[in-house]
Structures
1.
Amino acid sequence: MWAFIHKLGSPKWFYAISARLQPWFWVAAAVLIVIGSAWGLAFAPADYQQGNSFRIIYVHVPAAFLAQSIFVSMAVAGFIFMVWKIKVADMAAAMMAPLGAAMTFVALFSGAVWGVPTWGTWWMWDARLTSMLILLFLYFGVIALRGAFTSRDSASRAASVLAMVGVINIPIIKYSVDWWYTLHQPATFSVTSRPAMPMEMWAPLLIMVLGFYSFFIALTLMRTRSEILRREANKRWVRELAGEVS
Amino acid sequence: MSLRLQARKLACERDDRWLFRDLDLDIHAGEIVRVEGPNGSGKTTLLKILSGQLADFQGELYWNDHPMRRTRQDFLANLLYLGHAPGVKAALTPLENLAWYQALAGEPDDEPARFAALASVGLVGFEDLPAGQLSAGQQRRVALARLELIPRPLWVLDEPFTAIDRDGVAALEGRLAAHARRGGCVLVTTHHELADSPALRRIRLGQGGDDAAL
Amino acid sequence: MAFDSLSAFLAMGGHGVYVWAAWGVTGLLLVGTVIHARAERRALLRDLRRRARRAQHHGASSDVATSVSHQEGHARES
Amino acid sequence: MPLFREPEGSAGVAIRATLKRDLVLMMRRRSEVLNPLVFFALVITLFPIGISPDPELLAAIAPGLLWVAALLAALLSLDSLFRSDYDDGSLEQLLLSPQPLPALALAKVAVHWLLTGLPLALMAPLLGIMLSLPAGSYAVLALSLALGSASLSLIGAIGAALTVGLSRGGVLLSLLVLPLYIPVLIFGAGAVQAAILGDGVSAHLAILGALLAVALSLAPWAIAASLRISING
């Protein structure tokens, strides 16, 4: 077990194994997203209340899921880096952050656009949107903190600590925002809390969620491989690799 | 109890450049070890690593033959570190500054000892002035008074002679030698040339500047 | 199929602007991140190749013996 | 002379000395204690000027205004929490003492709260009068601020510790810390709101207390780890 963890932590080994895994995740992401999109956009029945505007759910919910999961992944990677000094974990955390922020933005944007036909306004202080907005600021904080240090080791460790502090706070923030929302807007219709969805509606949603997760894994593998090359550019195996490629 | 600080295969990389590599050190009681090297050769970094402040390095540290990770508390209880910045609060008087250091070190509160320590660095009459009103050299002397006040076997001193006048330099040099004779040990960087003695050893850094991959 | 014609599909029952805006931005961001990741990887590999060529050039012009000892140094490191 | 030392269990002495030292330091730089209070009063003055002097409108937004302004005022003094110790080298001495660093950091945070959060809480009712805050909510305002600002000091100290080594840490500090302040703000302002409406406030105060308990049990370790990172440069 220990040997395995440390082997996984070796950038060279990770570089090799991720090269084999990566294509599968790209294929899975492409297939799932294409099927999910077609099903969600063209085949799923329209919602009896919202009509076709409800089809935004197929990008809004996967993006929102991913936005939260990426932050948790970042914190877990940071923890692994801090405890076992596995640098690949930190590289992955660094590469995830921009995608997480992008997904948070997608969730916010699609939520806001969805608001126009539903609430008749571009922005509503809806509990989910407000939590997403706060999450976006948390992402900005982690990215900015990492960029502010000159020493790479300090940057990595500071970003790890902040991600861990953030991940402890996310449930607290979510809970308090939900509470605040129910207090101020008791009976407003919430776009995503729908009790019973027929199978033709939730199946494409599930496929889209899986597709987004595959996309996240594939992209993170790819960018972590790039980051390995960047940070290990002076190592012998990377130089040899560069020689082979040329 | 003996006194031994060891480093094995110490290596430190900064900005894709090795400051030092494969550095083995063995520092014993009764020694004055002077770390030498040009500017930017990693003297301060080495002292920070050896005093347990920096974690970003490769290699192992041992304190009395135990890995540093496990004896850190014990190590810190035996260490007195003086960095580039004197660590003297400008708004506090020298006496108040020392009182905090005494408590921080776990020593009993002892005002006469603080007066005596300040007297030993030539600060009689300045005990109750805010340290901000003292000169740079005098502030440095307040920091040096800790050497007298807080009995610790291992001294790690980064440029302790900065801003000190000639008499002060001589007194400090004498203090270092006396500490080594008593069985303490001193790790020091300085541009000031220390007088040769059997206790004095030198570590030279900065032949490197090598490419990090080599 | 929930729509009768292509125009009905594009109109989305009058909500076309909103649906397509949300989907479009999402798609653009996904494609954009992939393009960025590919460009990043290509630039890095180009940079590495340049370094490798420079190192070869450097090694060829310098003393053979030192370059051999460098190689050994590498081997011990890894 | 026995030179070799066993670690001594005198953390209490060190904590007391650090408390005393920081209190003395702050009392000698009184302007640093007064600045957040003046800032608080100024911000509260701006709102009636910027919005409207209508007492009813002001009363409606007073709980949130007072809380937000107090939160920003507390944030203002956060950057200096470790900054001067970092600049003059006492921070590295603090880190090298054989005492538990989380406890020493907690002592510093306690002083920050005593001289920032607590005065702000005591001053808030005065400003409440200026905003025609309805009677019956003044005690809750002060109490919720006193309780909440302790959490703010603890959470903020993590950010201050992370940014103390950076030359331009101030703006970044607010970016890191403000999102984490939101739960405290929600329940703090909520408590005052509930008091105005005549609802029970004990639930709000209990949650503020719970937040403080969580912050107290986790933040000192995060602050200590962050200080160790910052001292590395």
Note: Residues 12-231 of chain D form one domain.
2.
Amino acid sequence: MKELIKLEHITKNFGNLRVLDDFSLTVHENEFITLLGPSGCGKTTILRILGGFETADEGKIFFEEKDITDLPANKRNLNTVFQKYALFPHMNVKANIAFGLKINGKSQKYIDDKVDYALNLVNLKGFENRSIDKLSGGQQQRIAMARAIVNEPKVLLLDEPLGALDLKLRQEMQYELIRLKKELGITFIYVTHDQEEALTMSDKVIVINDGYIQQMGTPEEIYNEPENAFVADFIGDSNIIGGTMIKDRLVKINGHEFPCIDEGFGNNKLVDVVIRPEDVIVRERGAGKINGTVLTRVFIGVHYEMLIKSEENEYEWLVQCYEKYDIGEKVSLDVIPSNIQIMNKPTSSDEEAIDLDI
Amino acid sequence: MTSKKALATPFMIWIVAGTIIPIGAIAYYGLTDRNDRFTLENVLAIGNSVHLQALWLSVLLALISTVICFLIAYPLAIIMKNSNFGKRGFMIFLFILPMWMNFLLRTMAWQVLLEKNGVINGMLEAIGLPGQEIINTLSAIVLGMVYDFLPFMILPIYNVISKIDDSIIEAAYDLGASTSEVITQIYLPLSVPGIVSGVNMVFIPSLTTFVISNMLGGGKINLIGNIIEQEFTVSSNWNLGSGLSLVMMLFIVVSMIFLERFDKTGEDSFI
Amino acid sequence: MKKSLKFIYIGIVALFLYLPIIALVVLSFNESKSMAVFSGFSLKWYEEMFSNRMIMQAVINTFTIAITASITATIIGTLAAVGIDGMKSKQQNLVLGFNNIPLLNADIVTGIALLLTFLMFGISLNWGTVYLAHVTFCIPYVILSVRPRVNKSTNTLYEAALDLGASRTYAFVKVVLPELRPGILAGFLLAFTMSVDDFVITHFTRGAGINTISTLIYSQVKVGIRPSLFALSTIIFVMVLIILLLVNFLSKRGKEKVIY
Amino acid sequence: MKKKIVLVISLAIVMLVLASCGNGGGEKVYIYSYGDYFDPDLIGMFEEETGITVVLDTYDTCEEMYPVIKNNSASYDVLCPSDYMIERLIDEDLLSEINFDNVPNIKNIGDKYMEMSKEFDPDNKYSVPHTFGTAGILYNTEMVGDTVIDSWEDLWNEDFSGEIVMQDSIRDTFMVAEKILGYSLNTVDEDELKEATELLKEQKPLVYKYANDSTRDILASESAAMGVIWNGEYLYALELNDKLEFVVPKEGSQLFVDSWVITKTSENKENAEAWINFMCREDIAKQNFEYLTYSCPNVAAQALLDEDVLNNEKVFLTDETIDNCEVLKDLGPEGNELYSKYWKEFKAE
């Protein structure tokens, strides 16, 4: 795939606060890329620098190998779908969608056709003359999309576009976005703090925290092989516990040795171990390695979610399973080797702070 | 709910005593002659060439000042909106503070500044420019009006503009609009309520002032406000003065209708 | 627009607004009475100001009228803002229309109308007539700033308080009023400012010997104003400046506390 | 029930306010005079001597004062209007006779001036002269150069365009034009008035400003070369700028007498008389003259003044000058309306 956008060594400060620090990223053509991270992590700032609403303090931006670092927003061939849609309240639906086309001096015929096409695409045919404040949130969202795509941008920047919608609508719109992406065949750069959204839609997810990229990869990679405690904790629920890598393919957790599939950490090295709650196997007492007592139990639809307190070191395991165990019941836990994910202990003080939080 | 409504009772009494009755009083004086007989003469006196000329001059000067105020205030409001936080509060402060100096004194200060041998001419001459003779002319009055009423244009416009979501402006840039297109197609239509109330708050006082024309016009220029004021003081023909006031109220009614037309936000933006 | 260009623009407008004020402040320290020449630094106008009874009386009048009128207007206006909320929308529009009249009406017309009314009812002009006139034009400002705060949430809060067993008065005083406080405060300050700065309406409704700072200045403008009035305005201006800076400073401190 | 309570409270507030409008206790005298027309220190002295509190208000022109008195919109005790206005107030029964038993110092006022007063107060029953004088041209000797200033017509000299200051008061402004045309100051002939109006309109482009007492400051700061002003301002103007000179034009001028009078509605008449008596005391009149520099009709006070001031013909006019001057008379309602009409027409130009 061809390289489309390149961010090189971007640094951005707001006052004394460093939001982005030496941030580099390459986006390829026709990718659906998601910047995922907690609020304040710098993901929106990246999008705004791309859109031309902020200027980076240092670093360069290339678009199709041209330096666009100093190009103002209105000259960039990319369009943004804003968090709260930012529709023009004094214009009707059609005028909103036609805005960019009119500015670019397109013919009336072309504009009419384009607006028709865009409204069709977002399933809002016949809404041309509605006024903006008469639309529901989901409809406004679609108009915002339509307004951006009629300009045929090479890249669409989406800043938490589904944040203001309710759950049901949000799920619907996720499918809608995937469909749109396929039909348009352009690059989407999507910003969200919702990991489910990120995993559902993207080709590539970039997890960001404190202005740094924590991990980059396909949704599966991110979920199954988190590279550090932050990613593991941020993406889905996890049990993150300290352990010792005795040798390749053998790790000691809670005083018990578990075979695993990771290599290259060295011998007798302290590591972090990530085990997803659904990967913990609950067995009758004695049938597993770690002994524990069921503390709480909630039924959440498909399965039960339980906290099980380990007897050896009081660690509380988050566990999901289909069988029902009573509170106070004594059980044993086990994990199969491929579900054990080993990570290096964080080295920077920043990440230690995160560790403490966990 | 009825008990809640009753809270407005003192206000209703005040409306009757402080607004309705006084307007009735003006109407009564305006529609009668010295002997309390009904007449339309005082109202129709606006057709008198002297009055008409003063009215025409007042409308003209008020229009000019309003336009100048708008042209100064609008870019300022946009700049104020886009300045960063700390500065924003400071700037509102900067433009409100002068209102705390008595406006008569501020106006009079212009007299001092513009006097033929005044401060401004002194400065101009010091840098080798010819002195300007604008004191006691129409320009001096316009300057006084712009000076006195500019904050009343800045504040309502700023109020409306500051409420425009930044992302709407960014969206317009994002869609390729240039700065001038953003101003004409986004800022202007969205700030109409503020503009209307700003225009009202500059136009009406400019139209009816007698103080500024008195202080800066050198007694050479009579605006309709001067005529009415003089009917009440110098000439003591209160009936004529009231009749002309009734005519002035027409303008106010028109401006009220204008305000009514535009969003209620216009009302809030007085503050 | 370039940043420096913005700066220059703001600077020019600010200069335009402040030039006369600077001139007045400078002249208040002028040795000579003449407004054309600065003949030397002197504090004599400040001395004269404090020893001149007319000026002191005008200061007292200005502030007693402003304080009493704006307090009265704040009470009536706040009650009205809540009361108006309980009206049907047609009634609301009518009442608000009347409320707008003193705001939009030319000062000169308002002043004359009040003057004629006082005389029609045989009320001789005095301190009280000025007070009544000021209350009249202050109320709309209070309503204007309080009304936006009277909305659904205050209604819900009021009902919630009733639901929890509060009496109507208690609910109003303890629940609704605190909710309206910023609006009330803004309304009061606005009314106060308008009252202090008013000239035209006072000019028409003032009685014998009732001068406010504005009318005193006007009566002196033609005779040749004495710099002691510049001194007075300078002092008021500086006081306002200090108060505003203090308020600003304190509220900033307050905000920081909230954050940390 | 609630409604009634609110109603009662709001009425109570209104009543309270109305009640508080009454004046506080203590003896008072309400004075309404031209602005800056006597030494402000005198107020304190008077209060100390008599225990009467002075409440002072000022006006700029008599015309401004008249409607206030006429409508009794504010009640004053003592006024200090000019001659023609006193006549009008007497005619309209707005003044009360002064009890001269309470004003023994009336003896200090020269007979000459009491005689002059008879022009507008035929029996000397209502008024006590405070100042008198005439209008003339104050000019800057340097700015006018070689031009000799001795006629009202010099105010129409186009060489001084934009450097001429005129009075901004109906009768005083018309006076200048009427004198040039050779008409009486008190003409009510519409044709003559029309002619005067035309003359004033013609002059308007040359005029820097229509001003009242500030004429002195404008000339002192050399923003204008000449202006119409009262002779009483001359000494003070000279202090500010020694290039100034004053002349009473040869066509003759207006003679004014400004006198203390007491209103019909006065509630503090004896205090008012005490004030007038105080102002007539020789030492007070002298102090006031030194402050005001308007010619004072108080003969006893004149005796206390320096010779050269007394002999200054610009301050204490010669009989010859006085004879050449005319006193303004009240013109009656029609006459006043006629002046108003032409005044407005001239202003609208």
Note: The mean pLDDT of chain B is 86.
